[in-house]
Amino acid sequence: MARPVRGLELEVEQRNELEALVRAATTPQRSVQRARIVLACAEGLSQAEVATRVGVRRRIVTKWCGRFRQFGLAGLADAAGRGRKPSLAAAGGRSS
Residue 5: how many CA atoms within 13 Å on its side-chain side? Predict the structure, then answer.
C-alpha cells in the first residue's frame, strides 16, 4: 500500500525553474530526474506513483522530496565532497 501523500508546495518561481531544468537540452540527466520527482510530488501523486512515473525506487523519491522540503532548490544539487579530490594544487594557491 502506498504511503499517504504529503503535500509539497511549490512557489511559482520554483515551479518555473524546475520546469526550465526539465526542458533545457543542456541540463544533466540527474538534475532532470530530480526536478521531475519534485514536480510530480507537487502534483499530489503518492511516492509509489512518482517512482513509477520517473522510473526510480520509492526511496529515491523520499530522498529528493525531503531534501527539497529542507533546502529548497539548492537541496537538489549534488552534495559537496562527492567524487575524486583534485590531485594538483589550485593554480591560484602558488606564490611565485
Answer: 13
Alpha-carbon gap, residue 68 to 40, rounded angstroms: 13
Chain position carrying cell 540527474: 30
- Burial call 46-65: b when 16+ CB within 10 Å, e when fewer: bbebbbeebebebebbbebb
| CA distance readout (Å), 75 to 35, 65, 71 | 11, 9, 5
Query: pLDDT digits over 6-37, tens only?
Result: 778 899 999 999 999 999 999 999 999 999 99
- Strand, helix or coil at 80? coil
Which three cell numbers, joined as nine digits, stand for 62? 523520499
pLDDT attached to residue 50: 94
